[in-house]
Amino acid sequence: MLSRNECVALDQHDPLAPLRNEFLLPEGLIYLDGNSLGVTPKASVSRARQLVQHEWAANLIQSWNKAGWFDLPTRLGDKLAPLIGANAGEVVVTDSTSINLFKALAGALRIQSLEPATAQRKVIVTERSNFPSDIYIAQGLSQWLNRGYQLRLVDSPEELHEAIDSDTTVVMLTHVNYRSAHMLDLQGVTAHAHRQGALIIWDLAHSAGAVPVELNLANADFAVGCTYKYLNGGPGSPAFIWVAPRHQAHFFHPLSGWWGHAAPFAMDPSYQAGSGIKRALCGTQPVISLALVECGLDIFSRTDMGAIRKKSLALTDLFIDLVETRCAMHPLKLATPREHHLRGSHVSVEHPDGYAVMQSLIERGVIGDYREPHIMRFGFTPLYLRFSDVWDAVDTLFDILDSSAYQSGQARVAVT
Q1: CATH code for the domain defined by 4-41+304-403
Q2: What one-character DSSP code corresponds to residue 17?
Q3: Model pLDDT for residues 63-99, shown as the tens digit of each residue
């Protein structure tokens, strides 16, 4: 087990350490919740001021052209693309993850329904432990279409291969599980789905900016994800959608708004989808929140996902080791895989009073979050987290547990 002095020494030799200075980090706070909401890039403050005071207040509507507002979704998509193994012209930043998932699922079902070999397939495969909104979107779209589509909910990653069979039309999975941080084999599962004749959609909400992703190398079909976690785009910042180049010409979805039109300002009463990835757009874009996404993305240009992943694994290894060594006498259970190839960039720990313990940690300046049942989540964002932060966080956790300094059965706040 490393000592705190050894952790400080690691910080001093950390090649990512200079990037910490690019973020606004409250003094005395250890932030382990970047897997839920990333911290604020310093550049976001000046960017927001410039946009409001000059581009909006001074230039008003002219800024759609002068300031490049109109092209923000595709320009940001091109910046984000390398982080998920995509190329320019394959990603747009727009809407929410749920809305983009609706588009991707609708588009995938349509493609499959037009192919004689797959037209009669009606099964959509996903995990029961998938993020609930993803499941809700699939349930809602299936019910609305009323064409006999049904969800096949898989109870463990080990059951996926058997569940994806000749009845499957679309597979819809989250790469890194939001609760456990279990990471699926993106390339292997994609290949298996294709061998069964199914298309696959990946949710990268807990992957983009956290773990290396190679969508094109894996020959995936569609992907969606958010920008407010590891990409530090700000609360509720627009999400992204990726469509494989081979599908773009045939990609249609029901949310055919004017921003996805081939010529939006022609004001034609008939919809004609734009070319390429632009057809994944829908309505007028939220410019202020879109613009702030760029501040987070720009920081990634100063490093690479290999370096980020190396530090992420070191941070999570350290946390697991410290918790299991220092807190061994307490009823904690690791809910995250130990194996590197199965682990994302957060660690989940079960405790019978997990909510109360987490609230005590937050009161002591160690910010994580809580997910049912009994799960305390700790996110590790290599861009701004130090090894000494991990040591101090576990030290605080040990003190809380050892002194029983938490209140069981307390009322829950709205956002846990």
Answers
A1: 3.90.1150.10
A2: G
A3: 999 999 999 999 999 999 999 999 999 999 999 999 9
Give the domain ranges of the chain: 4-41+304-403, 70-301
pLDDT surpasses 80 at 140: yes
Tokens of residue 148, six digits: 């006999």
229 is catalytic: yes
Task: Read off the pTM.
Answer: 0.96
User: What CATH number has the domain spanning 70-301?
Assistant: 3.40.640.10
- DSSP code string of 28-39: T-EE--TTTSPP
Q: State the Cα torsion 303-337-98-208 to the nearest 10°.
A: 10
> By the 8 A CB rule, do 331 and 357 touch?
no
Determine how many CB atoms are found less than 10 A away from the CB of residue 378.
Answer: 30
Of the candidates 79, 179, 229, 386, the residue annotated as catalytic is 229
> Which has the closest alpha carbon to 202: 168, 174, 164, 241?
174
Instruction: Give CA–CA dist 113/118, Å, rounded.
Output: 6
pLDDT tens, 303-326? 999 999 999 999 999 999 999 999
What residue numbers does the annotated binding site for pyridoxal 5'-phosphate cover? 97-98, 131-134, 174, 203, 206, 228, 258, 284
Catalytic residue, chosen from 33, 78, 95, 203, is 203
Q: Is 377 a catalytic residue?
A: yes
The active-site residue, picked from 131, 230, 370, 384, is 131
Residue 394 near residue 329 (C-beta atoms within 8 A): no
Distance CA 370, CA 192 (A): 34
What are the binding residues?
97-98, 131-134, 174, 203, 206, 228, 258, 284
Nearest partner of 283 among 252, 262, 261, judged by Cα? 261
3-state secondary structure (DSSP) of residue 95: coil
Q: Could you tell me if 75 and 91 are in contact, meaning their C-beta atoms sit under 8 angstroms apart? A: no
